[in-house]
Specification:
The chain is of the alpha+beta class. It contains five helices and eight strands, in the order αββααβββααβββ. It has a five-stranded mixed sheet with strand order 1-2-3-4-5, with helices on one face. The longest helix has 18 residues. It is flat, with a radius of gyration of 21 Å.
Amino acid sequence: MKPLGLLSLLLLLTACEFGKRESVTTLEMIPDAPKATFVNYELEKLDKRTGPCLADGKGEKCLSIEIQYPVIDSGATAEVLQLINQQIQRDILDYAFISEPKDDFNLLIEEMSQEYQKILDENEDYTFGWLLEISSDIIHQDSSFISTATTVFTFTGGAHPNSTQVYRSYDLATGKVLTLGDILIEGYEEELNKLAEIEFRMDKRIPPSEPLNEQGYFFENGQFQLTTNFAVMNKSLLFYYNAYEIGPYAMGPTELELKLTDYANLIKPSGVIGDLKN
């Protein structure tokens, strides 16, 4: 997935400006080896500007919406492709809304535009610009499934912008969203959760004897739990806890990677990653 330049956005939003972006110097990277391609897709893009949108680059009195998401056109049956494309949009829209989730990006754009214009009409001195930026792409392909990552970045005049990361994997045979129960054996929960907590504590440098809630986390009943926000990658499971999900905003998000080679005994032989069990 292409980076969104969140640092630049945060700096700009702090100054109530998100028009001109600062240039960022990046290191020249050695290209990765070509990756296998199992589905073909295009990135659909939607752009919308609402409000006076001053031409001085400050972004005052302007609603800016930028949406990018994958649309798959081959690599599975027509029925499955339709299901996956619909589900990708639905999974994104579940995390991008003003009053309630929408079924279509155009409906989302329409509602945000109406809400923003209403605020401008009722408050002549309101100068904050609003921003919605959605960037979604396929981050891993396999012959039996694909995985996507989506970043939803919003600023609607509050104390700070919000960023949400959404991971999903889709079965290329059925079109359904993969759950842990689809790829792991029955009864996996206790062992996987126990081993994942060890990884979590190591990552956060929390001793086994230290209660998680005393470190500022608010897992239910103080017991660590894996999130359902995950994607199947190349021989690993990638979990993502967004800000506010298990801790206050200041603690930020948490990404947790579990190597499937360390959990081979939990892999369902008939699942889409069953070959990793060998």
